[in-house]
Amino acid sequence: MKEEMIQILNVTKDELIQIVKEGVKLELNRQKAIGQTTFNNSHEKYLSRSETAKLLHVTEVTLNNWEKKNILIPKRIGGRVLYKETDVLSRLDDAA
Known about the structure:
Blueprint: H1 13-34, E1 38-39, E2 44-48, H2 49-56, H3 60-68, E3 75-77, E4 80-84, H4 85-95
Antiparallel strand pairs: 1-2, 2-4, 3-4
Protein backbone atom coordinates (compact mmCIF):
# COMPACT_ATOMS: atom_id res chain seq x y z
CA MET A 1 0.00 0.00 0.00
CA LYS A 2 1.40 3.36 -1.02
CA GLU A 3 1.13 6.07 1.62
CA GLU A 4 0.80 9.75 0.91
CA MET A 5 3.48 12.04 2.23
CA ILE A 6 2.35 15.34 3.70
CA GLN A 7 4.79 18.10 4.41
CA ILE A 8 3.76 20.80 6.86
CA LEU A 9 5.46 24.16 6.65
CA ASN A 10 5.14 27.29 8.74
CA VAL A 11 3.25 25.71 11.63
CA THR A 12 4.05 26.70 15.18
CA LYS A 13 4.47 24.14 17.94
CA ASP A 14 1.14 25.17 19.50
CA GLU A 15 -0.65 24.91 16.14
CA LEU A 16 0.77 21.43 15.57
CA ILE A 17 -0.30 20.34 19.07
CA GLN A 18 -3.83 21.62 18.37
CA ILE A 19 -3.96 19.80 15.02
CA VAL A 20 -2.90 16.53 16.65
CA LYS A 21 -5.41 16.94 19.52
CA GLU A 22 -8.26 17.55 17.07
CA GLY A 23 -7.26 14.52 15.00
CA VAL A 24 -7.13 12.25 18.03
CA LYS A 25 -10.48 13.56 19.27
CA LEU A 26 -12.11 12.94 15.88
CA GLU A 27 -10.73 9.40 15.70
CA LEU A 28 -11.86 8.56 19.24
CA ASN A 29 -15.37 9.81 18.43
CA ARG A 30 -15.38 7.81 15.20
CA GLN A 31 -14.30 4.63 16.99
CA LYS A 32 -16.94 5.18 19.65
CA ALA A 33 -19.64 5.67 17.02
CA ILE A 34 -18.76 2.63 14.90
CA GLY A 35 -18.09 -0.08 17.37
CA GLN A 36 -17.38 0.62 20.94
CA THR A 37 -20.06 -1.04 23.02
CA THR A 38 -18.70 -0.38 26.49
CA PHE A 39 -18.90 3.16 27.79
CA ASN A 40 -16.45 4.01 30.55
CA ASN A 41 -18.65 6.46 32.42
CA SER A 42 -21.33 3.89 33.22
CA HIS A 43 -19.38 0.62 33.08
CA GLU A 44 -22.43 -0.87 31.39
CA LYS A 45 -21.93 -3.13 28.41
CA TYR A 46 -24.15 -2.45 25.43
CA LEU A 47 -25.05 -4.81 22.60
CA SER A 48 -25.85 -3.91 19.02
CA ARG A 49 -29.21 -4.83 17.49
CA SER A 50 -27.72 -7.81 15.67
CA GLU A 51 -25.87 -9.06 18.77
CA THR A 52 -29.06 -8.73 20.81
CA ALA A 53 -31.17 -10.52 18.20
CA LYS A 54 -28.69 -13.40 18.02
CA LEU A 55 -28.45 -13.72 21.79
CA LEU A 56 -32.24 -13.80 22.18
CA HIS A 57 -32.76 -15.97 19.05
CA VAL A 58 -35.19 -13.46 17.54
CA THR A 59 -35.19 -11.21 14.49
CA GLU A 60 -34.49 -7.49 14.49
CA VAL A 61 -38.14 -7.00 13.54
CA THR A 62 -39.09 -8.69 16.81
CA LEU A 63 -36.80 -6.27 18.66
CA ASN A 64 -38.65 -3.39 16.98
CA ASN A 65 -41.98 -4.85 18.05
CA TRP A 66 -40.74 -5.33 21.61
CA GLU A 67 -39.63 -1.71 21.71
CA LYS A 68 -43.09 -0.57 20.60
CA LYS A 69 -44.64 -2.74 23.34
CA ASN A 70 -42.12 -1.54 25.97
CA ILE A 71 -40.79 -5.06 26.44
CA LEU A 72 -37.14 -4.27 25.70
CA ILE A 73 -36.19 -0.62 25.28
CA PRO A 74 -32.89 0.26 23.55
CA LYS A 75 -30.70 3.31 24.06
CA ARG A 76 -29.81 5.50 21.12
CA ILE A 77 -26.19 6.52 21.49
CA GLY A 78 -24.24 8.25 18.75
CA GLY A 79 -26.87 7.38 16.17
CA ARG A 80 -26.75 3.69 17.06
CA VAL A 81 -29.43 1.53 18.64
CA LEU A 82 -27.90 -0.33 21.58
CA TYR A 83 -29.29 -2.55 24.29
CA LYS A 84 -27.98 -2.80 27.85
CA GLU A 85 -26.56 -6.26 28.32
CA THR A 86 -28.19 -6.53 31.75
CA ASP A 87 -31.63 -5.78 30.22
CA VAL A 88 -31.09 -8.39 27.53
CA LEU A 89 -29.95 -11.02 30.04
CA SER A 90 -32.93 -10.31 32.27
CA ARG A 91 -35.16 -10.79 29.20
CA LEU A 92 -33.51 -14.19 28.70
CA ASP A 93 -34.23 -15.06 32.34
CA ASP A 94 -37.89 -14.04 31.90
CA ALA A 95 -38.21 -16.29 28.85
CA ALA A 96 -36.72 -19.30 30.61
